[in-house]
């Protein structure tokens, strides 16, 4: 069972992400980031690669794409907030 990020571990896990463009969402325990690309093709290509990791890890983003922009929100529905899976997927998304 995926564990919700604990208060102690949370800082350590989230700090590098918050320093790399992720931010806490208002009103819910989630993180979000807007990715900007050259054009729609680049954005959708990134989404396709990102989707393969989400499927591999059975952990899926909430995302919204308009042309060259992808807004990503990560949270773990099963625990009603942030888990280590969200941090793991965020790190992967940043590396794609
Ligand atoms: N993705 N972000 C996210 N959060 C979940 O809780 C989740 C998921 N993908 C699949 C999944 N849970 C399944 O394990 C079922 O709980 C739906």
TrEMBL record:
GO terms for biological process: tetrahydrobiopterin biosynthetic process. Its EC number is 4.2.1.96. The keyword Repeat does not apply. GO terms for molecular function: 4-alpha-hydroxytetrahydrobiopterin dehydratase activity. It is an enzyme of class 4 (lyase). It holds the Pfam family Pterin_4a. CDD domains: PCD_DCoH_subfamily_b. It catalyses: (4aS,6R)-4a-hydroxy-L-erythro-5,6,7,8-tetrahydrobiopterin = (6R)-L-erythro-6,7-dihydrobiopterin + H2O. InterPro entries: PCD_sf, Pterin_deHydtase. Keywords: Lyase. Signal peptide: none annotated. Belongs to the pterin-4-alpha-carbinolamine dehydratase family. This is Putative pterin-4-alpha-carbinolamine dehydratase. It comes from Salipiger profundus. The lineage of its organism: Bacteria, Pseudomonadati, Pseudomonadota, Alphaproteobacteria, Rhodobacterales.
